[in-house]
């Protein structure tokens, strides 16, 4: 009699993640479309601890199934990841779902990796949406490889032999789900406010003294602007770290400040890919080790500022950063495909598995190019009386000037290249015509323009950079 009954629904596996502080994330789910049973939830991640809003496993399963309904006829290119954003007012939640194809149980299935938040957290989450999505997209790339390896190994090994161990899609996805929970919890408590009082920054001081040397402040702000507003501030004193971090955030837009984080006094946060400015505390030995992979995966190059020894270092410009990032990403995925188990590949050792890709591990270099824009700004802003709104007004005028210069540069390149139809060949004329003959000034304006028009660096400097890379590799071989 039981043979005619449908199979029982298996219990959904669940992981409780210990997160320090209040995590606004209600749950994360991995679901797939079963051709017999329809939408199925494979795994649920929930933060451990007290939450203002709680969803039962049944409600989480319902919401996860909701994201897969209508995806059975999905038509997309192989490897494509579709991002869906649901606002369910009747349930009081928002769902961010990444839809992709993967091999499960020997068949091609439509899968969904989703995160669920309260609708009240919509304004908090939106500025961080791009950061979360990009990080989840890459872990999906790794997860699809892991599922494909499992499918291939299952087809090769018959029932008389055990399948290879280590092909666990859930453990791969957890590598990014857990850090995103920690990121959202840390941003909830230590994010930089949209409006920063200049009195809490170095720009309100009467003058530049021993606490912040003028040359150090100039280098920090200049490099910060040259790397598209992305900076890491490290040190042993949390007050000093946060003061410099808030100072750098003055040069960001209100939305970018919401993607920046201050350091925590009693313990240090981990480095998080995608944030603009983040303060990090050194350990008891006076050191802080940055993970090579996470730094390289940042969307923009980064400035490294040490407030203990007043040093400023920066990564290569955008076009070189993107070149190294994509090479490393391909190497990581290739190494993952060749690995026999998850333990065989450590995230920061991928560079040793691909002999064709040997990036410089010391990716932070001294600031090579001086500028006149920031130097003049610092000289003039401290001529104004502190404690008034004059310095804030002058800062706003300075940022408006840089923005207008970036727009002018974009228009100049559009006219010279007929909106990209021809290659750009007149960099010397651009420097002269726009009064950007100083390399530091050009780098700052180019960085502003890069955020307005992504890919500008690669368009302007692309071919010379590839040529220089090949020449450098040839010279190093002798």
Automatic annotation (TrEMBL):
Pfam (any one): C9orf72-like
Gene Ontology CC terms: autophagosome; endosome
GO BP terms in the entry: autophagy; central nervous system projection neuron axonogenesis; endocytosis; swimming; swimming behavior; thigmotaxis
InterPro entries in UniProt: C9orf72
GO molecular function: guanyl-nucleotide exchange factor activity
Name under which the protein is recorded: C9orf72-SMCR8 complex subunit
Lineage of source species: Eukaryota, Metazoa, Chordata, Craniata, Vertebrata
